[in-house]
Every structure is written in structure tokens, then in C-alpha cells.
Backbone:
């Protein structure tokens, strides 16, 4: 069996692993985007609520309402902190998936180059062999 044919199964496995890593990278990118969107929404909601609080406070509010606003804003602050942690973890996960895919892609590319090189060498050798046979046949022809 030629070296290029021996490497074909290894090349297929490497390509399959690269594709799996690419799908995981895509899912992690989608997840990161979703988590970042949630964080943005929380921050927007926090800002809107602060604006409403300021408007209500300028008109005068009761101590009970003031305490409710503060409690709710504190809960929003906590939710934002938690979501920031989720986004951070999601970024790390995405980075790991990206590095994994990059590594698999590099291996696949390297194997493809090796297989291509073997195939070119094998084809060259085949052409050389055919030329030699052709030359031998032409020399054996009776004149």
C-alpha cells in the first residue's frame, strides 16, 4: 500500500475531529453571544429602573417605596454581577474551544500537505515508470 493511501484514514479521522471541534466552537460562540445579550439587557433594565427611580424621587416618594427601589436595584446589581461571571466563564470556554479547533485544523492541514506530497511523488514515480516501459518497448521493436 502506498504511503498516501496509508495516511488517508488518519486524514479522515483528523478531518472528522476538526469538524467536531468546529461545531463545538460554533455552539460556544452562540452561547457567548446569548450570555452577552442577557448582560446587556440587564444593564439596560438597570439604567431604565434608575431613571424611573430618579423621576419618582424628584416628585417625592414614601420611605417604603424608597426602600423597595433600593432593594430592587440591589437585586439588579447582584444579577448583573452574576451575569458578568457567566459571560466571563463563557468567554473562557469559547477561547478553549477556539484553541482546540485551531489545533485540530493545523493538524488536518499538515496531514493534507503530507498526503498531497506523497501523492505527487507517487504520481511522478508512476509517470517515470510508464516512460521507462515505453522507452523499453520502443527499443525492443524490430526495425
Residues:
Amino acid at each position: 500500500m502506498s504511503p498516501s493511501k496509508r495516511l488517508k484514514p488518519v486524514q479522515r479521522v483528523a478531518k472528522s475531529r476538526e469538524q467536531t471541534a468546529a461545531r463545538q466552537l460554533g455552539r460556544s460562540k452562540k452561547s457567548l453571544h446569548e450570555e452577552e445579550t442577557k448582560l446587556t439587557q440587564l444593564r439596560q433594565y438597570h439604567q431604565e429602573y434608575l431613571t424611573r427611580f430618579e423621576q419618582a424621587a424628584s416628585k417625592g416618594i414614601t420611605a417604603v417605596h424608597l426602600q423597595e427601589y433600593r432593594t430592587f436595584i440591589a437585586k439588579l446589581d447582584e444579577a448583573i454581577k452574576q451575569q458578568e461571571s457567566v459571560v466571563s466563564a463563557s468567554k473562557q470556554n469559547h477561547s478553549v474551544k477556539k484553541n482546540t479547533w485551531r489545533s485540530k485544523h493545523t493538524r488536518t492541514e499538515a496531514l493534507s500537505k503530507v498526503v498531497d506530497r506523497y501523492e505527487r511523488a507517487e504520481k511522478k514515480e508512476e509517470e517515470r515508470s510508464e516512460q521507462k516501459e515505453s522507452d523499453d518497448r520502443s527499443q525492443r521493436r524490430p526495425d
The helical segments are 3-59, 63-140. The mean pLDDT is 95. The radius of gyration is 33 Å.
